[in-house]
Design a protein that fits this description.
- This protein is α/β, with parallel strands linked by helices.
- The strands form two sheets. It has a seven-stranded parallel sheet, with helices on both faces. It has a four-stranded mixed sheet with strand order 1-4-2-3.
- Helix 4 links the parallel strand 2 and strand 3.
- Helix 3 packs parallel to helix 4 and helix 7 runs parallel beside helix 11.
- The longest helix is centred in the C-terminal third of the chain and has 16 residues.
- The protein starts with 24 loop residues before the first helix and ends with a helix.
Length: 316
């Protein structure tokens, strides 16, 4: 009943405060906890989570890269392709040969060429070659080609100046086929040019296919990369070079162009789209190649060869 003081745990006083036998909890609560740890050591703090994630990433075993033993290397696969690449002097580093492969003339020639060139010869089981090539039909031969060492656009004019010559350079605008690039490199080498410039993005690069098409001339004709083609052409203009763009609707015919006799950059666009707008506006001349046979256009390799021949003829 009300007021019965015999109930267990019934409060008999309205006074609040520490109970007997607290064990000094309040006293310990008043003690200091030392200096505040830095943010990256405080559990739950954003910087602590970032630090933990970085530590976990550092100790995690890296996943194997696709595309070859070094990740960035290009792989030439297949017996015919490997033999042709070795014949044309593609700058490979390692030839991988499948263990217990059925040997034929191509396999023997590939091994002989690789040995003569001082390449590394590696024997690998078929599953490993399948992994390296992502399941392509490698036929037991895989050739590893390191990334091409591109020049800087300024290197091309510096080389010409060092030789006491007027620069003769070809710039490719929107060329995506590496075989066209290789053909242009070959023409530049044949007609005494000083190099080729390609855009850094959305353009063909010096792959094994480009090397093969160049027929080995890429070893002595530098290819440079430009971050921005328009700015690169403007920089060449400041150095005194004339920028000549090839266009089907050009205002000047090739045989009328005296600018080829001096320092010049010949700009070649893609066969379909031609020169891009900004590049076309940057050119000092837009030149057309007369084609009495009625063809609408020439591919980049052929067009560059025609203009380079005309430039070499005038300079001679």
């Amino acid at each position: 009943m009300a007021g019965n003081s015999q109930r267990r745990n019934r409060r008999t006083s309205n006074k609040k405060g520490a109970t007997v036998g607290s064990g000094g909890q309040r006293r310990r609560g008043l003690e200091g906890k030392g200096p505040t740890p830095p943010a990256h050591m405080r559990k739950g703090h954003k910087k602590n989570r970032v630090a933990n994630a970085q530590a976990k990433q550092a100790t995690r075993r890296p996943a194997p890269r696709r595309g070859g033993p070094k990740g960035t290397n290009e792989l030439v696969v297949g017996r015919n392709s490997v033999v042709e690449a070795l014949r044309e002097g593609v700058p490979a580093t390692t030839l991988y040969v499948q263990q217990f492969v059925d040997s034929d003339e191509r396999v023997r020639e590939a091994i002989q060429l690789a040995t003569e060139k001082g390449l590394n010869l590696m024997e690998a089981p078929r599953p490993e070659l399948d992994r390296m090539t992502n399941g392509l039909n490698h036929q037991g031969l895989v050739l590893s080609v390191p990334p091409y060492d591109y020049a800087h656009p300024e290197d091309l004019t510096a080389t010409a100046a060092g030789n006491g010559e007027d620069p003769l350079i070809v710039a490719l605008d929107g060329i995506t086929d590496p075989r066209n690039l290789g053909a242009v490199v070959r023409s530049v080498s044949a007609f005494g040019g000083h190099g080729v410039v390609v855009p850094e993005r959305r353009a063909a690069g010096m792959t094994a296919s480009a090397w093969k098409t160049s027929a080995g001339t890429a070893a002595r004709t530098p290819v440079a990369r430009a971050t921005n083609m328009t700015r690169m052409l403007e920089a060449y203009q400041k150095e005194g070079l004339m920028v000549v763009g090839l266009a089907a609707d050009g205002d000047v015919e090739l045989h009328e162009l005296d600018a080829l006799e001096g320092p010049v950059v010949i700009v070649v666009g893609s066969e379909g789209k031609g020169l891009s707008r900004l590049v076309g506006e940057t050119c000092d001349f837009r030149v057309r190649i007369p084609m009495p046979g009625g063809a609408e256009s020439l591919n980049a390799g052929v067009a560059a060869g025609v203009v380079l021949y005309e430039a070499a003829r005038r300079r001679a």
